[in-house]
Amino acid sequence: MKLVALPAFTDNYIWMIHNGREALVVDPGDATPVLEALHEQQLSLAAILVTHRHPDHIMGLPALRPHCTGPIYGPALEPVEQVTTTVHEGSGFEALGLSWQVWDTPGHTAGHVTYIAQPQSGLPWSSALVFCGDTLFSAGCGRLFDGTHEQLAASLARLASLPDDTWLCPTHEYTLSNLTFATAVEPDNAQLGHVRQLCEQQRHQGLPTLPTTVAREKAINPFLRTQEPTVVASALHQGAASTDAQTVFTTLRLWKNTFKA
User: Which are the catalytic amino acids?
Assistant: First the structure.
């Protein structure tokens, strides 16, 4: 079983899991890299997972649907034309021999969902795989469309509650730019410099900076660190009205919307 990040557009990743015969893909905004990978590795497409309705996550569905031998899963609260099986909080299913659980993770969009592949013996990874769409990015989080700051903060806190070794698979290569913002928020966090050095090496080699882990994100992601004194101080400097975690989070998210390095 292999986990592969297929680059798409300028900074998207379409995640693929395959066992050498069948494949599953997550958020195929572009059909071309998926079809090329299927052809090159002689794989059949067994299932597709969609986290939310934005075009860069679903535009490949019409071209891929004729090739898909199984369900196309998507969020029940967000109409996506090509979806054949809607899912929501508590949904579970089997795909590619893996057991999947669905969480509602609203915020980026109101109906956003996250897919969790449960760990099992015999896999090259020992922890759960979490496909979190645009809810969480490495060192950052998605911006708001029709969700709320409260929803997004709760969704991120829930992801952060997973075991430290859980693999998180966001769908954008935003890590280095997010690290720049994180450093502005928390300039004395030494972990940020260590992670930046590693990520710069990965990008120089043409490799993705993802997946990340819950442990790493709790160490570097300011949106998961809203009770750290330096993060609180930065939020207050940006006009936060209080030091409570939600106010700090909202202030950081609004600051990030206009942040320029």
Answer: 52, 54, 56-57, 108, 134, 172
